[in-house]
Amino acid sequence: MVNSFNDCYTLENGMKIPVLGFGTYKMGGSSDLEVLKGAIKAGYRYFDTASIYETERVLGQAIKESGIPREEFFIATKAWIDERGYREVQAAMDRSLQRLQMDYLDLYLIHWPKSSLKETDWKERDIETWRAMEELCMAGKVRGLGLSNFLPNHLDVIMKYAKLKPQVDQLEIHPGYSQEAAVAYGQSKGVRMQAWSPLGRGDTIHNEMMSMFTEKYGKSASQICLRFLIQKGIIPLVKSSSIEHMKQNMEVFDFELSTEDMQILSCMPQTIWRGEHPEFKIPVKASNFNQ
């Protein structure tokens, strides 16, 4: 069990990864530079971005202006749906590195397993994408590889052909949408699971059921959600524009949820999910290669 914000997990490839990450989805404006600089000042060193987020430039600028050496950060980005493919993903990584003003990544992920529900050759495309990513890893451009929004049936496709195993898999995970089967399967394969939208876009923390936990533990609903994930060995990817909330999200290592309460939260009725699902509804926005 991790005991502090500064702790790390050791991935299967031996790489250390912080137990809490800072997400950058829906950022990228001029004001977001100050938000990211604030997150760095608060102590965050693990930042998660993606080509589709259009935040790589501002993140790279924030890190550069911090004056903190690059090697003290853990940086992950993702190849979007239309960047899948052997040649496509190689070019995509080069663009991401250029935008970030970096010469290597800590993690590079395939953002979605399919471009549409009707894509018949998605398995072949993902395998070719992974093959190119393995070559980028062996060339020193990235330290580890991972996946995002890959359910067990998608994960198996990669695991069957991979020379370098996926180190992480990002899914929407929070009380009320804890994806127990997908999490257990990934963990059984040695994949470190990560949670995007760990607070359920705020809907989860305003759920009536959460009030009894906030009263019992003297913690906010957000902190209860994050602690729930941490006790499951899942890495939350948090996001906030408020310094106060940034710090509050870090203060989840001084209490522990009981086994009973973990069970209750795991069985919490579905409250909210984003509605994006690789076997149901897939985002279709194309990435902007000129960013």
From TrEMBL:
Keywords: NADP, Oxidoreductase. PROSITE patterns: ALDOKETO_REDUCTASE_2. It comes from the Bacteria. Residues 20-265 form the NADP-dependent oxidoreductase domain. Belongs to the aldo/keto reductase family. This is Aldo/keto reductase. It comes from Muricoprocola aceti. The lineage of its organism: Bacteria, Bacillati, Bacillota, Clostridia, Lachnospirales.
